[in-house]
Design a protein that fits this description.
Order of helices and strands: EHEHEHEHE
Shape: globular
Structural class: alpha/beta
Distance between the termini: 19 Å
Strand order of the largest sheet: 2-1-3-4-5
Number of strands: 5
Strand content: 15-25%
Number of helices: 4
Helix content: 25-40%
Low-confidence stretches: none
Mean pLDDT: 95
Length: 134
C-alpha cells in the first residue's frame, strides 16, 4: 500500500504537515510539498514545469491525503493551480482513495464545506473515492 500526502501549505513542516503525520500514525507515507515544484498556471508553457511529476505521484499511490491551510476563505493558490492543471489531462485515478485536511486559524464551516465540495468534485471527475475531511 502506497500512502501519499500532498502538502499545499508553503510551510513544509507546519500544522498541515503535523496533522498528516498524526493521521498516518507511524505508517510509511510520502510527503510531496507543492511549494517545492514548479507548477505553472493553466495555459502557461514552460519546459521546467513539474505538474506531470506530481501527477504521477498520485498515479502511483493507493491512498492520497491532500492538505491545505485556509487562506482568504479558500485553499492555497498552490493547490488551486494544481487542481486547475488537471483540466488538460484525461488521466484518471480510478480506485484511489482521497481524504483532505483543511486547517487554519478558525476556518468557518462555510469555508471548509466549499473546499470539501471542490475536492469531492475533483475526486469524482478522476474516479477516486472521496473519504471527506480528516
Amino acid at each position: 500500500m502506497v500512502y501519499l500526502f500532498i502538502n499545499a501549505s508553503p510551510n513544509k513542516g507546519g500544522s498541515t504537515a503535523r496533522i498528516a503525520r498524526d493521521y498516518f500514525k507511524g505508517q510509511d507515507y510520502k510527503q510531496v510539498n507543492l511549494v517545492d515544484y514548479n507548477i505553472k498556471q493553466l495555459g502557461q508553457d514552460d519546459a521546467r514545469d513539474d505538474f506531470e511529476e506530481v501527477r504521477m505521484e498520485i498515479q502511483n499511490a493507493n491512498d492520497v491525503v491532500i492538505g491545505t491551510p485556509v487562506y482568504w476563505s479558500d485553499m492555497t493558490g498552490l493547490l488551486k493551480t494544481f487542481i486547475d492543471r488537471h483540466v488538460d489531462t484525461d488521466n484518471n485515478y480510478a480506485g484511489k482513495k482521497l481524504k483532505i485536511i483543511v486547517q487554519g486559524f478558525s476556518p468557518t464551516n462555510d469555508e471548509v464545506k466549499a473546499i470539501s465540495h471542490i475536492m469531492q468534485h475533483w475526486a469524482e471527475r478522476f474516479k477516486m473515492t472521496y473519504g471527506g475531511i480528516i
